[in-house]
């Protein structure tokens, strides 16, 4: 079933290999908003309101179990300021809200935005230059074949390989840890997938 689920992109003509990476263009559909500071390009990821998190800053509810110690993300706009919970660079949600001045930041991506859903196909070891090359070419490619309203605004890769807890398990100089530290990581609400076990051990 996992393979059939992926192969639907081939049948529908929605999977494109550009360089080392593959991109099915999709709607992000995650409860986050990405802002960029106008003055220096700094990126800030904020949670939409009502998201339930554990004290350790990951989503509550894995395995259908809810914690009595969970906290909820908030969102308030008032007098040109936005107060919301941000995602730290290590991919963890911060329970203490952050306030920004909206005239100093530009909303770049939200849950309804089109993105290039990045997939790493099997093959040779991937490098950072592979990532940069594929992403640059990907934006150019979709700009030429899709209507302006459907052109991707960003790249997103929803994968077990970006679990920040892996940084506690594998060497700091590994390629995977290096890649994670160059990305803006955001949490996903687990849907019970065990793909990490499958890819590492061959069985989930």
Residue runs with pLDDT of under 50 for 5 or more positions: none
Number of strands: 14
Which class best fits the helix and strand makeup? alpha+beta
Helix content: 10-25%
* Secondary structure tally, helices: 4
Instruction: Tell me the overall shape.
Output: globular
| Overall pLDDT score | 88
Instruction: Report the sheet with the most strands, covering strand number, pairing sense and barrel closure.
Output: 4 strands, antiparallel
Which descriptors would you attach to this protein?
204 residues, alpha+beta, 4-stranded antiparallel sheet, 25% strand, globular
What does this entry look like structurally?
- The protein has 204 residues and is an alpha+beta fold.
- Helix content is 21%, strand content 25%.
- The protein is built from four helices and 14 strands.
- The chain has helices at residues 2-11, 128-145, 175-181, 195-201, and strands at 16-18, 21-23, 25-27, 32-37, 43-47, 52-53, 71-72, 75-78, 81-84, 86-87, 98-101, 105-109, 114-117, 154-156.
- The strands form five sheets. A four-stranded antiparallel beta sheet has the order 10-5-4-12, with no helix packed on it. It has a three-stranded mixed beta sheet with strand order 3-13-14, with helices on one face. The chain has a three-stranded antiparallel beta sheet with strand order 8-9-11, with no helix packed on it.
- The model has no long low-confidence stretch (mean pLDDT 88).
